[in-house]
Design a protein that fits this description.
CATH architecture of the largest domain: Roll
Number of domains: 2
Shape: elongated
Mean pLDDT: 84
Distance between the termini: 60 Å
CATH superfamily of the largest domain: RNA-binding S4 domain
Structural class: alpha+beta
Strand content: 5-15%
Helix content: 25-40%
Low-confidence stretches: none
CATH topology of the largest domain: Structural Genomics Hypothetical 15.5 Kd Protein In mrcA-pckA Intergenic Region, Chain A
Order of helices and strands: HHEEEEHEHH
Number of strands: 5
Oligomer: single chain
Radius of gyration: 19 Å
């Protein structure tokens, strides 16, 4: 399961940070993955103890590599190969409001409002 040499894009794919290796490589090329604050390349060799900052669409992660994994396994096994060091502020920011103040506009990629959201909007508008 683990090997001595492992590419960063393959590792991020194997621990299920990204759905495909291509997405992992694209994120690395777009400077959304940093090792100790420095930009990295998809071919960077992963070493146990490395700390990576990863920005995905869902949230920002800070992880420390605890074991190498070169094949994609189920989530419950994958999370044993890294430690999540994400600060509390980032976890709190994950639970942002769907609607921006009074404008009623949804943030991008949030979908249609639910029935509960609609009621809240009606209460804001005084209907």
């Amino acid at each position: 399961m683990s090997s001595e040499k492992l590419r960063l894009d393959k590792y991020l794919w194997a621990i299920r940070m990204f759905k495909t290796r291509t997405q992992a490589a694209d994120a690395i090329d777009a400077h959304k993955v940093k090792c100790s604050g420095a930009d990295v390349k998809p071919s960077k060799q992963v070493v146990i103890g490395d700390v990576y900052e990863i920005k995905t669409e869902a949230r920002k992660w800070v992880i420390e590599v605890t074991a190498l994994l070169d094949i994609r396994v189920q989530y419950s096994e994958a999370i044993q190969h890294y430690t999540d060091l994400t600060p509390e502020e980032e976890l709190i920011m994950k639970d942002k409001q769907v609607f921006i103040d009074y404008t009623g506009k949804r943030q991008s990629k949030q979908g249609r409002p639910t029935k509960k959201n609609r009621r809240e909007l009606d209460n804001l508008n005084g209907l």
